[in-house]
Amino acid sequence: MLFLSSIVESRAPAPVRSAHLRRLEAESIGIMREVVAEFRKPVMLYSIGKDSSVMLHLARKAFHPGKLPFPVLHIDTLWKFREMIAFRDKTARELGLDLIVYTNPEGVARGINPIASGSALHTQVMKTAALRQALDMHGFDAAFGGARRDEEKSRAKERIFSLRTADHGWNPRVQRPELWRLFNTRLSEGQSMRVFPLSNWTEIDVWEYIALEHIPVVPLYFAAVRPVVARSGTWIMVDDERLPLEPGEAPHHKLVRFRTLGCYPLSGAIESSAATVADIVAELKGSHRSERQGRLIDSDEEAAMERKKREGYF
Amino acid sequence: MDDGLAAPGVAERDKDFLRFLTCGSVDDGKSTLIGRLLYDGALIFDDQLAALAGASKRFGAEGGEIDFSLLLDGLEDERQQKITIDVAYRFFATGRRAFVVADTPGHEQYTRNMATGASNCDLAVILVDARKGVLRQTKRHSFICSLLGIRHVVLAVNKMDLVGFEEARFQAIAAAHAEFCAALGFLSLAAIPLAARYGDNVTKRSARTPWYLGPTLLEYLETVDVGRGVEARPLRFPVQWVNRPNADFRGYSGTLVSGSVAKGDRVLVAGSGRTTAVADIVSFDGSLERAGAGEAVTLTLAEEVDVTRGDILADPKDPPEFADQFAAHVVWMGDEPLVPGRSYLLKIGPRTVPATVTALKHRIDVESLQHLADKTLALNEIGFCNLSTAVPVAFDPYDVNRDTGAFILIDRFTNETAGAGMIAFALRRASNIHWQLLTVGRAERAALKAQSPAVVWFTGLSGAGKSTIADLVEKKLLARGRHTMLLDGDNVRHGLNRDLGFTDADRVENVRRVGEVGRLMTEAGLIVLCSFISPFRAERQLVRDLTAPAAFLEVFVDTPIDECIRRDPKGLYAKAQSGQIRNFTGFDSPYERPLAPEIHLMAGEDTAEALADRVIDELRRREIL
Ligand SMILES: Nc1nc2c(ncn2[C@@H]2O[C@H](COP(=O)(O)OP(=O)(O)O)[C@@H](O)[C@H]2O)c(=O)[nH]1
Questions:
Q1: Do B245 and A67 touch (CB under 8 A)?
Q2: Biggest CA-to-CA distance, chain B
Q3: Dihedral sign from CA coordinates of B49, B51, B53, B56
Q4: Verdict on whether the full-model pTM lies above 0.90
Q5: pLDDT single digits (tens) B406-432
Q6: How far apart are CA B88 and CA A155, in angstroms?
Q7: B195 in ligand 1 pocket by Cβ < 6 Å?
Q8: What per-residue string of b and e applies to B267-293 under the rule 16 or more CB within 10 Å gives b?
Q9: Across the interface, do A10 and B42 touch by the CB < 8 Å criterion?
Q10: String of b and e for B132-148 (b: at least 16 CB within 10 Å)?
């Protein structure tokens, strides 16, 4: 399926970009403040990736000198890279976050995992259903997510304030028009809102902002020699002993990094020597591959994202 | 305030940023054009391009040619699945500028979608097919752009290859369009001859239009000056959130929508007459000397004044308007039509207040630009209206400030966004309407009668028994020495409301007038019984709002329609059934059941006497008696 993803440009001088980034920053801060002013009990979804890191940084700016006026929620599928979990706990400690970690207990009881159960079922149970459970359990009426419109086709039309039904479904027929900077935040009984403050950011904006603001990110984004095996045309890292190897198979040691992070058996690495944020920005500007190519979760089937969203996936 | 040296705020640095809208009818080549812009700017990834070449072959594009429109597909599939797509946003950047393209599908809902896309854009690219020239749709697109405040337009005359790249044809189209646009107030209007499919004049100058000396479309987009000049305008800082992390700090967070502010500047709390000084501009990166339009900051104030979310901090020398009645253009976006007199929520900046459209001055035909008389606005229609808000609000005319002059209307029951508006001017300043302060008030009058005033509102189908029960309730009140008044639907239609019929709009006005009369009577200290079908929730809510602070009790006289038909005391159901009368509630006009009435009478199940006693009991329980 075709879609227009991250757009890379190659010639922009730095000052142009920083004005552009400041504009995006102000827009995101305005969105976050609107949510805190209008909703009863908001929460920020924290996926530990680069977008979450940027979103968290923007939230600190928005509510300065106060602390974040909402908790941060991580849906732990139990298959995240170990470095991600370490980074999450360090970030929560250092920033004094009110961190909630939630895992779907039924999924654990059923032994759901991305290898034996397949990526679709694993995602459905450990991510989508888990998120629904966590939101219901705490009664959150608004949840921030780090999705960007440039990520894939169905996101291009997603609203910044996206209404969800009582069972967290996304009904594309009743989405509200968004004019100016006026967001209709009213909820009917049982409804809740997903809010995407990074909607208008592109992948390269995110990296340039990380550079500009010196925002820490998980080291997995930077090139290092890592043990990987070839799976479905991409490199999968052997992050722990749960990844089954073929008889006699030994991991390769390759200089790789990740463009997106998720469950490690579902996140493809790219061969790269980009070891700093500046290297990554330079690599992206020269790159002609879209961000999602490494995500096994998308290639599962056509229109995967559309369907997942209707079921309540972020 | 501005020393000319300080760095301007982000909104002012528009030299490096452009949001533009593309509009065109189906098949004018809009998708091809956007795809081409991105492709020629080397903005498409290899994996996408490979997929694109494959798809082009599959869909049978000629001789290995790439069909760029396929890049943007999706809108079409979704339309078939009946998904509402209003606007798709795409991003690209060149060495000179970052761009956001707002693309709206050219189908049904077009006005609503275009208005949504245009609301955040500074420029529009309007496509026409060179063979067809300026069509009705072209006029419609131009008008909506103008209405939403777009001041820069590019007419992209596409498919020039199909008219032999003929200069005369191009000039004729450009001239026709310019003539139509003369009254629309555009500051710049450029026309560019294109063949999007082959790339002529999109990003590369075409050898096939030697007579055309202007820029390519991309060059134009990179260099056009859409200077919004928002920074030079007077300060407007709508307070979005009050930041109070601890007892020692109280900051006002928001985004400057125009002007700039520096430490020590005096600012006015719009509408209050109070001024104070800016003590500090607080940001995560430290205290700032100055902030400009577009920046999201937190201000602390030198002298504490009462400021809450929704207030506007403004330049005291050039304050915004402050009024509770104004005229505005409204684009209707709700499935249910606009009903004048009905109460909606109006959101303007961070402030949300109840509001009604008091009069629809005219509807605008978006193709002929003619003003037409009308009673309501349906989905995708545009009108010029008078509005009244429950409390005065601060604003600027939309022409002067898009952020402080724009509002949305929200349906109070579905919570959906029902309309979008652009304020033209205040109808009367709130500062000029003096509430005559009277020494004798509601409380004194009520005290003399030793009772507490209330409105008891009976709603239900015709023949449900509203009037019978209301009449009994009044008798019982009288017997207890209470001062009452009964307003009955049939009776007021002989006098006060004799000019009204039974259309939705008239029903709304009927109830509004009765609500106002009821309110006056509570001020006189009376217990007012009202017996009206009042089929719409919105109006019953309106009357409830009007009545405050006096008590309002909604009594739902719930009689099954079959029972009403059987009773048919006035013979009306018989007439409705035989088609002699129209717009009859329960037949061809809806009745919206109350969701949470104070008293729910299952009227088929008891005598009128017993039901009236229940109302009396409830009044006693609420200490009205
Ligand atoms: N001859 C010619 N055909 C064009 C040109 N631009 C677009 N088309 C064709 O017009 C048709 C409709 O284009 P498309 O971009 O899908 O139109 P949209 O509905 O406005 O998005 C396609 O078959 C295009 O290849 C042009 O400049 N010249």
A1: yes
A2: 97
A3: negative
A4: no
A5: 999 999 888 999 999 999 999 875 554
A6: 9
A7: yes
A8: bbbbbeeebbebebbbbbeeebebbbb
A9: yes
A10: ebbeebbbbbbbbbbbb
